[in-house]
Amino acid sequence: MELILNDENFEKEIAEAKLPVLVDFFAVWCGPCNALAPILEQVAKEMEGKIIVAKVNVDENPQVSQKFRIEKIPAVILFKQGRPESSFIGLSSAESIKSWIKNLI
Amino acid sequence: MDKKLNLNPDKKVVEEIMRGLLMNEKKYGKRYCPCRRVTGDAKEDAKKICPCFWHEEEIARDGKCFCGLYVK
């Protein structure tokens, strides 16, 4: 199950997470975001117990989006021990994302 | 003379992005690209009005703009 983050709960959830957190910054009417969403769901299922997959709607959460300088979406950031470890922008395949994560965790 | 832009032949993609543009027009008063965050900085955000400041280089480089509305 994906974790829904917002301006209010973001810092606490990221800081207290027991696993690395993959955060998908998205918007509802962004085509590439909607194409990436099911791919990240697949990654979340296949990597259950290794990472947490979370989402932030940038339109509804300007503070956290501004903090991490989100310009283009989808933007995906992997947080490890509460800190941003690495990121990518745009559409990617499940295999590439899994390989990227495995190199980071 | 305006340059000719080619819409993505995938109607679903076009419809989705058009909805995003119209939502942004309703929300912000301008048709900002739905794949770029509107920051509130008028000068910066002006570059994100579709077709955006970057669309030509993205189409030339990637075959489509970042959001996928326009293709080569």
Biggest sheet descriptor of chain B: 2 strands, antiparallel
- Give the overall pLDDT of chain B as a whole number: 93
Number of H- or I-type helical stretches of chain B: 3
* Count of domain modules of chain A: 1
| SSE run of chain B | EHHHE
CA distance, first residue to last residue of chain A: 20 Å
Oligomer state of the chains in this structure: heterodimer
Dominant shape of chain A:
globular
Number of strands of chain B: 2
Low-confidence stretches of chain A: none
Helix content of chain A: 25-40%
**CATH class descriptor of chain A:** Alpha Beta
Here the CATH topology of chain A equals Glutaredoxin
Order of helices and strands of chain A: EHEHEHEEH
Biggest interface, and residues per chain?
A-B, 18 and 19 residues
Strand order of the largest sheet of chain B: 1-2
Superfamily at the CATH H level of chain A? Answer: Glutaredoxin
Mind explaining what this structure looks like?
- The complex is a heterodimer of chains A (105) and B (72).
- A five-stranded mixed beta sheet of chain A has the order 1-3-2-4-5, sandwiched between helices.
- The mean pLDDT of chain A is 95.
- In chain A, β4 and β5 (83-89) form a beta hairpin.
- The two termini of chain A are 20 Å apart.
- Chain A contains four helices and five strands, in the order βαβαβαββα.
- Chain A has helices at 10-16, 31-46, 62-67, 94-104, and strands spanning 3-5, 21-26, 52-57, 75-80, 83-89.
- In chain A, α2 packs across α4 (94-104).
- With 72 residues, chain B is mainly α.
- Chain B has a domain at 18-67.
- Chain B is globular.
- The model of chain B has no long low-confidence stretch (mean pLDDT 93).
- The A-B interface holds A 27-34, 58-59, 62, 65-66, 70-73, 90 and B 13, 16-17, 19-21, 23-24, 27, 34-37, 39-40, 66-69.
